[in-house]
Amino acid sequence: MDSTRNGGEMVINVPESKSTKGNKAAAAAAPVAIVANTKAARYSRGGWKRGVAIFDFILRLSAIGAALGAATIMGTTDQTLPFFTQFFQFQASYDDLPTFTFFVIANAIASAYLVLSLPFSIVAIVRPHIVGVRLLLFICDTVMAALTTAAASAAAAIVYLAHNGNPNTNWMAICQQFTDFCQNVSSAVVASFIAAVIFMFLIVLSAVALRKH
Length: 213
Fold this sequence. Notes:
Largest sheet: 2 strands, antiparallel
Number of helices: 4
Radius of gyration: 34 Å
Strand order of the largest sheet: 1-2
Structural class: mainly alpha
Strand content: 5-15%
Order of helices and strands: EEHEEHHH
Number of strands: 4
Distance between the termini: 57 Å
């Protein structure tokens, strides 16, 4: 401790103790620790969201295959029986029924949407904290899920009648004659339902990502 006299006043200099210096050093290091913990927490949250976004991208690729396969199989389904009469030829094609035509259009729209949604899914991987992209995909996925489910359900009803008929309305089962046609349309309906289920998974993933934001 040093003392000096300045005019009529006496100034006493008290040296800092080791404990005081240690407290100042700890106070200076505290903001750094808080910033580091905040960054670590953000990285942790972004890590699982990035994982969700990657899984979302993989599901979209799978849905593209299912929806495009359903539209392609149904759109190329055509069978002509080897026998015919003088005035009539026995033929079955998907465009004979408006329900199957709607099925092809709906799955084609779903396939096009899924292809266009891939860049947005990539953006969600690169920047997992963006809410706008995830919300847009959530809304569009919901619309596409409804469209795909409606098309697959309507086509499934027609496929059921083709396999079993309806005696009450005198609708005959045609799958005993048009076996290839029925197999193809049944496969297309199954693929469309797979696409609809994948859309539901995509909706759940988007909802979870938005809920945890």
